[in-house]
Amino acid sequence: MSILKTDELKKYYGTGENQVRALDGVSFQVEKGEFVSVVGTSGSGKSTLLHMLGGLDRPTSGMVSIDGQDLSELKDDALCIFRRRKIGFVFQNYNLVPSLNVYENIVLPVQLDGRVPDEAFLKTIVDTLGISEKLNSLPNNLSGGQQQRVAIARALVSKPAIILADEPTGNLDSRTSQDVLGLLKISSNKFAQTIVMITHDEEIAQLADRIVRIEDGKILARE
Amino acid sequence: MKISNQKCIRRLSLKNMVATKARNIIAIIAIALTTLLFTALFTIMMSISKGYEQSNFRMVGTSSHGEFKRLSKEQYELLKEDEGIEEYGLRRIVGVGSSQEFLKNYTEISFMDENTTKWGFTTPTTGNLPKEGTNEAAADTRVLKILNVPLELGAEFSITMDVDGKETTESFVLSGWWEYDLVSPAGNVLIPHSRLEHIFEKLNTEFIDDSIGSYMMTVMLKDSRDIFGEMSEILGRNGFQAMDKSADNYVSIGVNWGYASEGIFGDMDTGTLIIGILILTIIVLTGYLIIYNIFRISVANEIRHYGMLKTIGTTGTQIRKIILIQAMVLSIVGIPVGMLLGWGIGGVLTPYVIEQLNGVMDAGTSISPIIFVFSTIFALLTVLISCFKPVKIAGSVSPVEALRYTEAVSCNKTRTGKRGTSLWGMATANLAGRKGRTLLTVLSLSLSVLLFTITITFVNSFSIDKYLSGMAAADFQVSSAEYFNVTMGWTVDNAMSMDEIEQFSALEEITDSGITYGIDWENSPRAFFEEETVRARMKAYGYDSDSIEETMKSEKEFAESYKDGKYQGKISDIVQIVGMDPFCATKLTVTEGDITRIFGEEKAIAVTEDSLLKVGDKLCVSYLDKSELVNQRTSEVYAEYEDIPEEEWPDIITNEEWHEEEYTIVAKVAGMDILGYRFSFGEKLLFSSQEMLANTTEVAPLYYLFDVDDEKEAQAEVFMAQYTENSPLGYDSKAVVAEEFKSFNRMFLVLGCTLSFVVALVGILNFINIVLTGIVSRRKEFAILQAIGMTGNQLCRMLVFEGLLYTAGASAMAVVLNFLTIPMGKVIEKVFWFCEFRYTIVPMLISVVVLSAIGIVIPMITYQILIRKSVVERIRETE
Ligand SMILES: Nc1ncnc2c1ncn2[C@@H]1O[C@H](COP(=O)(O)OP(=O)(O)O)[C@@H](O)[C@H]1O
Ligand SMILES: [Mg+2]
User: Fold this and answer.
1) Are B741 and B19 in contact (CB under 8 A)?
2) What is the pLDDT of residues B65-115, one digit of tens each?
3) Per mean pLDDT, which range of B157-161, B179-183, B212-216 is the poorest?
4) Beta-carbon separation of B318 and A112 below 8 A
5) B752-795: pLDDT as tens digits
6) Could you list which residues have their CB under 5 Å from ion ligand 2?
7) B662 forms bridges with which residues in the sheet?
8) Which of B117, B290, B541, B866 has the fewest Cβ atoms within 10 Å of its own Cβ atom?
9) At A156, phi and psi to the nearest 5?
10) What mean pLDDT do residues B418-443 have?
11) Residue B412 has pLDDT above 50, yes or no
12) Which atom of ligand 1 lies at the shortest distance from residue A44's CA?
């Protein structure tokens, strides 16, 4: 069963001469439990694709559906709510709330939804990610790798349908990158998570079940 | 479930505030200053209203809610226990002063308990209330003055009084006194209850249902909403009623009308209303310019944060709530602080305003809850209006844009040319990149410049000479104190006597003098006018068209029946006449015709400048010679209705005799508002005193006018001040009017400068905020600039240039405004007759100097804060 599906997805920026075709007809699917990495050179449209997949931005044309829901059918606030329930994000620069501590950051999406976090599940996640000692720390006191693990925990905690990661290791050194990715993969297996990860690093991409290549806003080939 | 969601939003909101400490402090000060302005305004308004109410109470003679009149002892004892009565007091009148001195000064001798004296403004300010069992008495200063009692505790005096028809003379020892108030309805002598009983015993007085001797119970109820209803209910509960006078259980109720009036706001004219709304608008605008700017900048600086919250699923509504909660928390801190300060400042300013208001006393600063409720409402409203747009922006931030925001360091997409090479160029470019906030800051700073320029230009243009020539006719104008008091007004009864005038005219300093005579409204003559003239006047007085038509109809009928229809078609209307000695007439400004002709042989009069009558018109004035009440049956003649037995009333007719004179209008004059009655009821006609005295009987001097030797003016002033201090007379002089003018001037200056000052503080705060946030958000950029070789000195200079560019905008505004005052000067002179426009450069100079100073100093101080951290530290900073 495919959890994510796009059809002829296009995103153009600007008009006329200045028009940039960031995405130019992308159709692909991700199956439940799959770990897919998207690779391409800088400016090839990877981030744009991820933004479309996550409903952070609206495509010029084409369709994105997640867990059977066509995103274009949702209004802004509904899309927001859909996002916090179904999609987990991991960004290159972690995007943690600096004024909240680690625990608060992790449970934020669940609480925003007016739910009570599943403490047992949360404990498993933080144990798996090795941040159970850091729950009371503020993000600025953590190393980059630790911050990214918190971000991954945050993405996992709401048991989303899919996790979207945009260059999650872009700010980390290669050893830490390996650690974080390892954890991401373990989590994906352990919690049966579907993951789409963007990277421009071939080596890291190899860790995925499948690699999708993108160039000039188009998908090149499948492996 | 919903609860925990709210809690989460609240926590996010509050936690986030910890990170924006500087903004919070600035926002709290901004909200406090805005609230301060609102509260000061409302405090002044409510204090005036309180003073107005107190003045009304003084006129009524008490601040109690009401009085149960003419009770028996038993009724009093029964009623005072009623639960509807919050507090009560007792008053029993013994008699009224009956000797010669009291003829013009109605004075009551009575017992009053402590509550009654407290509410009745008769608590001695020196000494005490008379003690029971002694022969002490306390009195007001006027009573003591007319009885020639020295103001010394223990002084002995006696009073001859009428006690229920019996006369007695009683002697007392003075135990205390208080200042007599011109508006109070009666003079008062207070004696102990024991003395009262003694007098009644001695005279063997029997009192049944009469004012003398009966128990008057003054009461305070739970509230003043329906005093008559409440008091009636109290009576009902105890088996009495206030409706049927003939019944046995009737008790008369007196209600304090001071509570019924709508207060000063009911009397407010459109002009005052417009000024009030204008000031409110200025305050809202002041608050808006800064609070909006603070939140706008804060949201802009945190847009990434909000975008990120969106990526993890925070909805726009939730983000809006986060910011609104912050605004509310800041308000909760800022508003009370502002209210406290504003109340204090309002209290300090109130006396300056009350001094200018006739008929309003200074009753202290109001602590009415209305002040605080309205201040809170207006302050919150301003905060909400100001937050509206920033909140909307934050709520609708696109998560992608927010993500990209961090990746691009500069907010400018492109930059053409070589502007960036000089420090000035960089500074200009930096400001140009933030046009919105730059404009708001300049506006905010300019607002105070505007207010300051207006204040100073106005005050500078107030012309004392012009005011004096308009407001003080001669060197001195003497009359009864009531003549000068707008709430009382001159009447023949309170007029100064010819004896008193004689005393003045004997003064050697006087070079020239004259008397003007007046007459009471009841005895004023009537004149026959054209219909349109009366219509126009009635309209100007505010009559509705129905009553105008009615008057026209009945007056036409009257004219037909009067003197065989001699004045058919004309409308008779009352006229307000004065008779002037030639000296007084010379003090008027003649706008048309020749005033001296009224003193000639012909029958001539003058009218006011704004009269609808024309020079050359003829006017027939008809004087009432005799008015009597005649019993048709018995032919008996009465002077007043009160003298007639009730059963005779149906047979009574009024018998009036009139005579007429025809006059030519020979002049139009200005200045009658000073040299007339100081109130008006009809067309004002100016006669020679000879002509007036020849045709009317019930006249009295309206005032006595005199000029003195120029060298002796000061001397005369001292004499007049001393003479009138303890007498029923009052006076106006150049010095008095000049003092009034100066106090008006002072009020304007104080209020204007306070407002300008607080608004300036807000503007400066706005400026501090923009400089601070500008530097903080560019910390990293500056660090990089320094890393590539810009010296700290250069950086500081660049910041100062930026600061100066902001204030240059406001300075330019100051210059433009200053030039704008020149064409405005003509308008000022037109609207305010006592202004003579004088151009002044002072507000511009002060504004420019102050603006330049803050433009330099504030960026420098902020820079000092910035450089506390090293370049490396700043470059490495993640947030
Ligand atoms: N908001 C935008 N406005 C204009 N152009 C954009 C915008 N976002 C992305 N682009 C352009 O779209 C292309 C793809 O960008 P992106 O998806 O960020 O690439 P990648 O993540 O692969 O480096 C780039 O050429 C970029 O300049
Ligand atoms: Mg990218």
Assistant:
1) no
2) 999 988 888 889 999 899 889 999 999 999 888 888 787 778 899 999 999
3) B179-183
4) yes
5) 999 999 999 999 999 998 888 888 777 777 777 776 667 777 88
6) A 47
7) B620
8) B541
9) -80, -35
10) 72
11) no
12) 22
The token pair at A181 is 């990715």
The range of the structural domain enclosing residue A89 comes to 32-58+72-211+218-222
Contacts of B403 in chain A (CB under 8 A): 51, 56, 91, 95
Which pLDDT value is given to residue B420? 41
Q: What is the spatial distance between Cα B360 and Cα B51, in angstroms, rounded to a whole number? A: 5
B517 pLDDT above the threshold of 90? yes
Residue owning tokens 């400068």: B753
The reply to whether residue B4 touches residue A116, judged by beta carbons under 8 angstroms, is yes
**The pair of three-digit structure tokens given for residue B105, joined into one six-digit string:** 């000064």
pLDDT band, residue B1 (cuts 50/70/90): very low
Which of A:82-101 have CB within 8 Å of B? 83-85, 87, 89, 91, 93, 95, 97-100
Q: Is residue A190 part of a domain?
A: yes
- In ligand 1, which atom is closest to the CA atom of A198? 21
Q: What is the pLDDT of residues B245-273, one digit of tens each?
A: 888 888 888 888 888 766 666 666 777 78
Residue B697: what pLDDT?
A: 86
Lowest mean pLDDT among A180-184, B217-221, B470-474, B749-753: B470-474
Contacts for B432-436 with beta carbons within 8 Å, 24 or more apart? Answer: B434/B774, B436/B296
More confident residue, B813 or B41: B41
CA distances from B1 to A77, A110, B787 (A): 19, 11, 52
Percent of chain B predicted with pLDDT > 70: 93
Q: Which two tokens stand for residue B723?
A: 């003479």
Measured CA to CA, the distance from residue B44 to residue A180 in angstroms comes to 67
For the domain that residue A201 is a member of, what is the CATH number? 3.40.50.300
Q: Which helix (H) or strand (E) holds A200?
A: none
Nearest residue to B529 (alpha-carbon basis) of B663, B641, B691: B663
pLDDT at B407: 40
* A104 vs B contacts (CB less than 8 Å): 11, 15
Ligand 1: does its nearest atom lie under 6 Å from the Cβ of A20?
A: yes
Among A23, A48, A196, A198, name the best residue to mutate to test ligand 1's pocket (greatest count of ligand atoms within 8 A of Cβ).
Answer: A48
Q: Which residues pair with B661 in a beta bridge?
A: B621
Burial (CB count within 10 angstroms: exposed 0-12, middle 13-18, buried 19+), residue B658: middle
Q: Is the confidence at residue B855, as pLDDT, over 50?
A: yes
Which amino acid belongs to residue B272? T
Q: Which residues pair with B167 in a beta bridge?
A: B162
pLDDT at position B744: 86
**B90-116 b/e (C-beta count within 10 Å ≥ 16 → b):** bbbbbbbbbbebbeeeebbbbbbbebb
User: Domain spans of chain B?
Assistant: 1-63+256-407, 87-220
Specify the residue with its C-alpha closest to ligand 1, atom 27. Answer: A43
The answer to whether B94 touches B161, Cβ cutoff 8 Å, is yes
What's the pLDDT score for residue B271? 76
CA of residue A163 to ligand 1 center, whole Å:
21
Closest residue on chain B to A91 (Cα):
B403
CB A153 within 8 A of CB A125: yes
Alpha carbon distance B477, B825 (integer Å): 33
Whole-prediction pTM = 0.76
Closest CA to B445 of B38, B777, B29, B850: B850
User: The dihedral of CA B171, B174, B175, B181: what is its sign?
Assistant: positive
Q: How many domains does chain A have?
A: 1
What is the distance between the alpha carbons of residues B767 and B811, in angstroms, rounded to a whole number?
14
pLDDT for B607: 93
Span A34-55, average pLDDT? 90
Q: How many CB atoms lie within 10 A of CB B806?
A: 26
Count other C-beta atoms under 10 Å from residue A36's C-beta.
Answer: 21
